[in-house]
């Protein structure tokens, strides 16, 4: 049997070298990203347009007499009332007083809520002794305590600040407590291996892990703070946005009343946006 074996020289001769094209990066055309951006712009326009359309319908309904001015004044009249308050300086004074009440209540309630939430989250004994009374107090409608607060603390600034602090403390307490209990146990095991002290555990493990949920509690607390202030300033207030609303009620100025409510809403949205910006900055490491 004959077997044909080609020599190495023959193999080199018969080998055909195919030229390989240089690798080129695949670049998507710029137009392929356009539909997604167009959809985002479309929904952004819709979100902004829907309130404007409602305002336009409201204005048209008031102009043709479909909506009574004694029940709901036109947006233009409400805007004129707001300009009047801005020109005479009443709005600036009221914003300063109401804002300071919220800041005081937020600081006091934040210290109580975050402090107790941290203590309960770190200690089983504290949980057994502190958490039951906190849950009982949380079940009470804090705005229903206004008559008691007036009897206990009078009709000055103190009951208003304490009401705001009471409403603010519970969301921060619950979120802080829950955030600490949900920290990954493996992180504590790693800390034991590395020999971390309590201070190092708190600053390097507990605080970064709990920060996102605590900031969510802060956003909830701000909304409750403004809601509580709306009610607190309706009772025996001689300054603030609530005083403007009460004074307008006595003079049947519905336009000023609605403008005051709009100011409350804008303050709530603004403070929430500030906390969201703080949240993005503080938690930028997560992205």
Automatic annotation (TrEMBL):
Residues 91-275 form the ABC transmembrane type-1 domain. It is found in: Cell membrane. SUPFAM superfamilies: MetI-like. GO terms for cellular component: plasma membrane. PROSITE patterns: ABC_TM1 (PS50928). The chain crosses the membrane at residues 45-67, 105-125, 137-155, 251-275. It holds the Pfam family BPD_transp_1. It is a multi-pass membrane protein. One of its GO terms (biological process) is alkanesulfonate transmembrane transport. Keywords: Cell membrane, Membrane, Transmembrane, Transmembrane helix, Transport. PANTHER family: ALIPHATIC SULFONATES TRANSPORT PERMEASE PROTEIN SSUC-RELATED, ALKANE SULFONATE ABC TRANSPORTER-RELATED, MEMBRANE SUBUNIT. Belongs to the binding-protein-dependent transport system permease family. This is ABC transporter permease.
């Amino acid at each position: 049997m004959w077997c044909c074996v080609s020599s190495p020289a023959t193999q080199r001769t018969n080998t055909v070298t195919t030229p390989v094209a240089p690798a080129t990066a695949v670049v998507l055309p710029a137009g392929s990203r356009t539909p997604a951006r167009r959809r985002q712009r479309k929904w952004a326009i819709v979100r902004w347009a829907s309130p404007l359309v409602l305002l336009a319908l409201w204005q048209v309904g008031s102009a043709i007499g479909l909506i009574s001015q004694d029940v709901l004044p036109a947006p233009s009249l409400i805007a004129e009332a707001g300009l009047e308050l801005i020109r005479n300086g009443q709005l600036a004074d009221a914003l300063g007083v109401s804002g300071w009440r919220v800041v005081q209540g937020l600081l006091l309630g934040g210290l109580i809520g975050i402090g107790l939430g941290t203590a309960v989250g770190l200690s089983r004994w504290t949980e057994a002794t502190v958490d039951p009374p906190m849950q009982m107090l949380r079940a009470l409608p804090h705005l229903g305590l206004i008559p008691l607060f007036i009897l206990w603390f009078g009709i000055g600034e103190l009951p208003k600040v304490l009401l705001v602090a009471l409403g603010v403390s519970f969301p921060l307490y619950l979120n802080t407590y829950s955030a600490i209990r949900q920290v990954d146990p493996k992180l504590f095991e790693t800390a034991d291996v590395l020999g971390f002290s309590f201070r190092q555990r708190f600053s390097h493990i507990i605080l970064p892990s709990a920060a996102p949920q605590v900031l969510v509690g802060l956003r909830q607390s701000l909304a409750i703070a403004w809601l509580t202030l709306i009610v607190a300033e309706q009772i025996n207030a001689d300054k603030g946005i609530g005083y403007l609303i009460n004074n307008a009620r006595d003079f049947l100025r519905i336009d000023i009343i609605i403008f005051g409510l709009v100011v409350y809403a804008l303050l709530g949205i603004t403070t929430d946006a500030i906390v969201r910006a703080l949240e993005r900055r503080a938690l930028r490491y997560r992205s």
